[in-house]
Amino acid sequence: MRDRGCDRARAVRRQRAGRRDRDLADVPRLSRDARDDRDRGRLGARRRPARRHHPRLAGRAVASGRGAEAGGLAVAVVPFEYNLRSLFVRRSSTLLTVIGIGATVAVLAGVLALQQGFARLFSETGRDDVAIFLRPGSSSEGESGFTREHAETLMKSTPEIARDEAGQPLASGELYVAVRLRKNDGGETNVPVRGVQDLSFAIRGEQFRIVEGARFKPGTDEVIVGKSLAMRIPHAQIGDVIVLNLTPFRVVGHFESDGPFTSEMWGDLDRMTEALQRDGCSRVIAKLVDGADVAELRERLENDKVSPAKVQTERQYLTAQTIALSAILITLGGFLGFVMGIAAVFTGINSMLSAISARTSEIGVLLSIGFRPWSIFVAFLLESVLLGLLGGVVGCLMALPLNGVRTGTTNFQTFTEVAFAFRITSDVLVPAVVFALVLGVLGGLWPAWRASRMRPTEALRRA
Questions:
Q1: 3-class SS at 264?
Q2: How far is CA 244 from CA 144, 228, 241, in A?
Q3: pTM of the prediction?
Q4: How many CB atoms lie within 10 A of CB 457?
Q5: Could you tell me how far CA 443 lies from the centroid of its own chain?
Q6: Most buried residue, 101, 151, 234, 277, by CB count within 10 Å?
Q7: How far apart are CA 412 and CA 323, in angstroms?
Q8: CA–CA separation, 437 vs 434, rounded Å?
Q9: What SS3 state is found at 8?
Q10: Of 457 and 242, which is predicted with more confidence?
Q11: Which is nearest to 160 in space by CA: 246, 281, 285, 288?
């Protein structure tokens, strides 16, 4: 009897084992990632106290389909509100990081605004129907020079130069000399003094405007002073006397002009040539006929054996004058941005590492409820980028008051001082904000990588 009962029990056990094996054979095997996600889900279920940290976050992620799906497949993306709220929770570190990035962006924007103001002073005021003739090999009128005979031959023999009703060429010789004068603050500066003829005013047309007083009379010791220059040097008001190379000249008017000419002093060509002990003129300015081929004219005059000359449109000439200083300002801005950017990046790294250290338990919970490591990486990198964006906006706001502020610097082509204004434009603001975003990315890469490498169990144990 006993043996018969044991045999019956063994048969029942074998039958049950066979049925279990058949059931397991019908169950599909989970991938390694799926088993890990399933185990994380079980770990989160066992650790009930950890859910108290972020019940709203977990519930929102699962409800929106971004949490752990049924079956343990995690395709979670950390909600943007989580990053935004974290910035306001740690106000002190957020403020310090934003100020650091903002100061860097403000310095860069200031240098770019300086470069933009200087470049636009020249490039936006030149005309394509006005030509500048210089001596071959010269890069500026300060280096150029023509004899009176050469200038006259050039003006009369060039068919591309327009004529007036009497058939006379609409062209004029001009003298350009840098004169050392005292400034209002006690220092000295090189002031550009220009000797012109009557046709110089006609060629410039509406670009030249007398705003106070009157024009000088030809053949007299009278001068007119640019409005910007009159504010920077003494004895430049109407009725004052300015001594140029021991020759006194009376100021009879103030003028404004589109371009760098408001930093100059103008007088009669013959009187300036005599007073400053110069021969001939520095350049020839001329009005071109409609449809003139400047490239063909340039090639012809460069190969001319009788009266060779270098010719450019006024726009081309003025743009070329900005190359040296613009390159210096861009280099300076890049250097300052690089040095201050390094400090801003380390500030961002320190801020993000502090945030990760304080939120270790949160990272563990996020990983436990189904968020993948790449989600953690993206979340913290996005948080760092937000810091960079805030810093960029603050830096641009700090730089905005510079817009329109007038200053002066040396034009390295002529070594004379030129007055201009800071220009805050989209060409300044967009690179500044992009630079801030780059700082945010660089400051967040390593901290975000560290956060994504945490294991749920280690993060929760550390917390």
A1: coil
A2: 21, 19, 10
A3: 0.67
A4: 14
A5: 20
A6: 101
A7: 9
A8: 5
A9: helix
A10: 242
A11: 288
Alpha carbons within 13 angstroms on the beta-carbon side of residue 308 total: 10
- pLDDT tens digits, 166-207: 888 999 999 999 999 998 888 888 899 999 999 999 898 888
Determine the residue type at 283.
R
For residues 97 and 347, give the distance between their C-alpha atoms in angstroms, rounded to a whole number: 6
Question: Tens of pLDDT along 433-458?
Answer: 999 999 999 998 888 888 888 777 67
Q: In the prediction, which pLDDT does 3 show? A: 55
Cβ atoms of 253 and 224 closer than 8 Å: yes
**Beta bridge mates, 102:** none
- How far apart CA 281 and CA 304 sit, in angstroms, is 20
What CA–CA distance (Å, rounded) separates 58 from 56? 6
Per mean pLDDT, which range of 117-131, 271-285, 375-389 is the poorest?
A: 117-131
8-state DSSP, 31: P
Phi (first) and psi of residue 116, to 5 degrees: -65, -40
For residue 361, pLDDT over 80 is answered with: no
* 152-175 exposure pattern, b = at least 16 Cβ within 10 A, e = fewer: bbbbeebebbbeeeeeebbbbbbb
Count the neighbouring beta carbons within 10 Å of the beta carbon of residue 355.
23
Of 294, 421, 329, which Cα lies nearest the Cα of 107? 329
- In one-letter notation, the amino acid at residue 326 is S
> In whole numbers, what is the pLDDT of the chain averaged over residues?
81
Q: How far apart are CA 177 and CA 416, in angstroms?
A: 9
State both tokens at 379. 């979340």
Amino acid letter, residue 249: F
Q: For residue 435, give every residue at least 6 positions away whose Cβ sits within 8 Å of its Cβ, in sequence order, or none.
A: 104, 105, 108, 337, 341, 392
Beta-strand relationship, 416-421 and 130-134: unpaired
Structure tokens at 128: 């394509």
Q: In Å, how far from its chain's centre is CA 328?
A: 14
Range name among 17-31, 339-353, 394-408 with the lowest pLDDT average:
17-31
CB 304: neighbour CB atoms within 10 A? 15
Hey, what are 195's tokens? 């000797």
The predicted structure's pLDDT at residue 48: 44
pLDDT of the residue at 41: 53
Question: Which residue has better confidence, 223 or 350?
Answer: 223
**Could you give the CA distance from residue 203 to residue 201 in angstroms, rounded to a whole number?**
6
Inter-residue contact 214 to 252 (CB < 8 Å):
yes
Residues near 20 by Cβ (< 8 Å), separated by ≥ 6? none
